[in-house]
Amino acid sequence: MCQECNNTSISRRGLLGGGLALSMAATAVSASPAMAQTSDAPPATPEEALQRLKDGNARYVANTPRYSDHSAGRLSRAEGQAPFAAIVACADSRVVPELVFDQGPGDLFIVRVAGNFISEYGLASLEFGAAVLGVKTIVVLGHGNCGAVYATIDSIKDRVLPPGHLPSLVNAIRPAVYDVMADNPDNLLEAATARNAQLNAQKAAAADPILSEMHEAGKISSVAAVYEISTGKVNFL
Fold first, then answer.
1. Which residues are annotated binding-site positions?
2. What DSSP string describes 65-126?
3. Which residues sit in the known binding site for Zn(2+)?
4. With a cut of 70, which residues of the chain have pLDDT below it?
5. How much is the pTM?
């Protein structure tokens, strides 16, 4: 690493101040994909951002998508980005947030890992999305029949950790499974999947100092949801 880079520190104030400038610049130099294909204005509040996701999912379920021409706005997107929402999604190949919420390229800032939990790297990514890019809402999106949650349940029941680096996934999801096991739910997998999304949405909201202060100021929201692959519907918790 170069000495100049090593000696450079980024203060929180600098990050937020620079983020405001970058966000304004991105909006100025390029229309968002939503603006490129519709007359919708960018959502101004967390509530508006969340409603846009809900409306998009309703279109996806009804098979009436608005975003099908992904070439629209391609040149302007090269100049910058201004996503309105961040999605913490599972790495499962069947979960495609842009399709699930019927949004165009550039609309969603996506953090993905098997089991949709928030690691330190994921948290840093969300901080960047919120403070620099200006996302208005964070959705932690679990999904039905999640293999990572299923593997965690099996590991707990069998008292055996999986091989390789898989224990890191199991250990991250384990708290959600333990939380719901005490209630003896009819469907442990469904209950643990929902709880895992809820715990990580709470983690995002409480993360000091950047995200917690933005939540307290009403600049961003964090919510949990579960996507049902068979129906396409997202259930917000």
1. 90, 92, 143, 146
2. -S---TTTTHHHHTT----SEEEEE---TT--HHHHTT--TTSEEEEE-TT----HHHHHHH
3. 90, 92, 143, 146
4. 1-39
5. 0.84
